[in-house]
Automatic annotation (TrEMBL):
Organism, scientific name: Mobilitalea sibirica
Keyword check for Lyase: no
Keywords carried by this UniProt record: ATP-binding, Nucleotide-binding, Transport
Protein name per Swiss-Prot or TrEMBL: ATP-binding cassette domain-containing protein
Xref: Gene3D superfamilies: P-loop containing nucleotide triphosphate hydrolases (3.40.50.300)
The keyword Nucleotide-binding appears for this protein: yes
Molecular function per GO: ATP binding; ATP hydrolysis activity
Domain ABC transporter: 28-261
Length: 334
């Protein structure tokens, strides 16, 4: 496989065989003891992609798209049904023990810390598990404590920490053994905007200082916009977009959203010639395609024909952009 990539995935497929029962109840349960019906779920359908060292890659998709299944295969937790995967020279499901020492995982919704113990104790436990040399452990601990400003935080029992403080400790726990590759699963879920911003700042700092590659799985598009240069979108088990965020946005610079407020209720019939994104009698959001329409003319036309009191011209939001990929209105692999 290609030495320039930290992860290379070729034609990866994962099929789950799910036990099916037509009816509920004891009778149906008894019947399945003798005759089982199975349904095949193709969670990952022959996907291929690669990631370069030092990237912060967004790996996103709607619920049930196949993200967790793919990440579990990449981290050696699951066997695939077919395909090839190379993670830092290892085949994850065959070399799990070695690979585990070279990767880190942070789950926004699952803690690796011990509830009743201070985080510093969990860090020392990880030192033993990962056989981190004394000096590396001390240097990394000093680096993270100072970078994340958690000198006092690490000494308190985890149950007394705020979610933001706990997340910082989760990061330290996952990174003390200096893994070159870290999987982040919803790293900012439940955090307030300041803590989200702080966590994103630390991810970027660690990526810059240590060259750590991060794979970020998230439904928070703020994480993607702030952190990731490249994104891979998976939907129904297939990759529908795999390129830079910049190229993704380029598709949409030809479109503008006009948010209009009316002085009185408007009949939706009066807007029938427009591509309406939302409408509620006294306000509307209208999408204008600049390749087909002249923005200036459209605005003059609206102003003349409708009781407009306020009007704002906006770019398409990242949410709209990603939604159009999820809705399969756009697919592209770079
Ligand atoms: N152990 C399993 N057995 C059977 N089907 C499974 C199993 N794990 C996942 N699936 C199915 O595979 C598909 C992909 O699931 P997966 O958990 O990978 O999605 P996801 O993108 O991580 O979703 P979410 O954002 O909701 O976590 C779904 O249809 C799911 O129901």
């Amino acid at each position: 496989m290609n030495d320039n990539y930290i992860i290379e995935v070729k034609d990866l497929q994962k099929i789950y065989k799910v036990n099916q029962r037509d009816k509920s109840g004891i009778g149906a349960a008894f019947k399945t003891l003798f005759k089982r019906d199975y349904k095949i779920v193709e969670a990952v359908a022959n996907i291929s992609f690669h990631i370069q060292p030092g990237e912060i890659r967004g790996f996103i998709g709607p619920n049930g798209a196949g993200k967790s299944t793919t990440i579990k295969i990449l981290s050696g937790v699951l066997y695939p049904s077919s395909g090839e995967v190379d993670v830092m020279g290892y085949t994850p499901w065959l070399d799990r023990e070695t690979l585990v020492k070279r990767i880190g995982v942070v789950f926004g919704q699952k803690s690796q810390l011990w509830w009743d113990l201070p985080a510093i104790d969990a860090f020392h436990l990880n030192k033993m598990i990962y056989e981190i040399p004394d000096k590396t452990f001390k240097d990394n601990l000093d680096y993270f404590i100072s970078a994340l400003n958690i000198e006092d935080v690490v000494k308190k029992p985890v149950r007394q920490l705020s979610l933001g403080e706990r997340m910082k400790c989760e990061f330290v726990c996952a990174l003390l053994h200096e893994p070159p590759l870290v999987f982040l699963d919803e790293p900012t879920i439940g955090l307030d905007i300041y803590s989200k911003e702080a966590i994103r700042t630390y991810i970027k700092k660690i990526n810059k200082d240590k060259g750590t590659t991060f794979i970020v799985t998230t439904h928070d598009l703020g994480d993607i916009e702030d952190l990731c240069k490249n994104i891979t979108v998976i939907n129904n088990g297939t990759i529908t977009f795999d390129d830079s965020l910049e190229n993704l946005k380029k598709y949409f610079t030809k479109k503008k959203i006009i948010d209009i407020t009316f002085s009185q209720a408007v009949d939706p019939e009066d807007l029938k010639d427009y591509n309406i994104k939302s409408f509620n009698d006294i306000s509307a959001s209208i999408e204008i395609n600049l390749e087909e329409n002249n923005l200036r003319e459209e605005i003059y036309k609206m102003w003349g024909a409708l009781p407009v009191i306020d009007l704002n011209i906006n770019n398409i939001s990242i949410e709209e952009v990603i939604k159009s990929i999820y809705d399969k209105k756009l697919s592209h692999t770079g």
